């Protein structure tokens, strides 16, 4: 036992050496001790270390200061490095998934103008009522998994994955029922009957794809929030290789036409799910996605419906290509923000947000440049029809201008998702994509 005398009360104070206590003496103020459990290396019983309450106060003050200062250049570079590890492979994977959709459109274009228009209308309807709904529901598990990973609570991630897959499978039932009645809905909306018949055929053969998407969406989020990106990219690349082969088999060899293109897309998604499972041995997204797909349906009400719907299909493919980059940035910053918040580092989460918004501004300028300079060349990849090419060339610069706001907006929604506040992003999308545009 060791003893010393407190300068304030002149009474002896003693501490047992076996407790490995940290004594704190002060001459002007009383310090309330905090007991912290510490595991002794020589004993299974925990020991206690006495820490002053002022230690906790200083930590809170440090965190508060961290939240209100601008990041240094080294912190910005470090955050860019962290985001590039997530966003880089996500861009590659997004390009691979876009290539799958582009290949399907190419086969539709070679089948004929009517098939291209019908397939575009069907894809737009499917995105509005099916794919965006499943993707939006799956986004609900992103902040849970991201913050659980940051806090190292692994069991919560597994529970979120299992429950989200079950939720999406249940959601597939009403979506499939709606797809079965698509023809009646589109005819009631005044769509051209020939295009509607073609679109109805396409979507009937796309119904199996709902099951693949119900597993694929949560699985991708589950892996991405753990920074497991490279396997996703390799699986997408492998699925794309098979997609080309499957299209040639069903469309060219078996002469299945429009049905073959739809089945090939579904088959490819099932392949991707299978590859990911073998490796392992799923609201704001909806609102933004729906607006673009509504344009395809509304274009069917214009004069010369075949040309306008087909042109809108090409424009949607353009926006899908451009969207890959801000989307990957959004996913990267969502993961970074949720990880840092889960690890109780709000200052680093703020740095991630600022760096991501800066990158979004650069992407917006590049997207506008691309759509403006390629307006006369891009449509020729899909068709040689002069009416479709003319409409596409007129509209592409307008699409580019939209990206000046869309890139930062998409990134901002990623920040909100990572901080478990997707409702704010949903309200912003609802107001900007719908209420403002209809006024």
Automatic annotation (TrEMBL):
Keywords: Membrane, Transmembrane, Transmembrane helix. The keyword Transmembrane helix applies. It is found in: Membrane. InterPro entries: MATE_euk, MATE_fam. It is a multi-pass membrane protein. Signal peptide: none annotated. It holds the Pfam family MatE. It comes from the Eukaryota. The chain crosses the membrane at residues 90-111, 117-139, 160-179, 199-216, 228-250, 270-291, 312-332, 352-370. Its main location: membrane. The keyword Transmembrane helix applies. Belongs to the multi antimicrobial extrusion (MATE) (TC 2.A.66.1) family. This is Multidrug and toxic compound extrusion protein. It comes from Sphagnum jensenii.
